[in-house]
Amino acid sequence: MLRSALIPVRETPMRTITLAGLAFAAALTGCGGSKDSHDQLVDTCIAEGEAPETCACIVDAMEAKLSPDLFKRSAVAISREKRPVGEYILSLSDDEKMQFFDAEQEMETCELSVTEDE
Q1: What phi and psi values does residue 46 have, to the nearest 5 degrees?
Q2: Per residue, what are the HEC states of 48-60?
């Protein structure tokens, strides 16, 4: 009788821990936790209506020209916090604005979708 009373107690904590771990992993996946900064920016760009290839080109230019720290902070601000890009860039230091300027020069090679009727 004592043994049968202890079995559920021993199984319950392990099962609870396992279920909590699975729930946490599912929550991270649902929040984009498994995606890196590059993928998050590409997804945000696509959601704004740009072609996937163009978005990849734009984000590649950003990643190539921005410092790793600025690139990660930009992904957070633009993808997660949904800050307007122009507003975000204006909030940066002059050095960081210059990094974006350099990235913009490279972005000019990316073919943007046409938004106006030709």
Answers
A1: -60, -40
A2: CCCCHHHHHHHHH
Q: Which two tokens stand for residue 23?
A: 């729930």
The one-letter code for the residue type at 112 is: L
Cβ(37)–Cβ(71) under 8 Å? yes
pLDDT at 3: 42
Summarize pLDDT for 28-81 with one digit per residue, the tens: 334 444 479 999 999 999 998 999 999 999 999 999 999 999 999 999 999 999
List of residues 6+ apart from 39 with CB closer than 8 A:
none
Quick: pLDDT tens for 7-34. 444 444 444 343 333 333 333 334 444 4
CA distances from 19 to 43, 48, 100, 111 (A): 30, 36, 44, 46
Q: Quick check: helix, strand or coil at residue 104?
A: helix
Contacts of 28 (CB under 8 A, 6+ apart): 34
Is the Cβ–Cβ distance between 113 and 51 less than 8 Å? yes
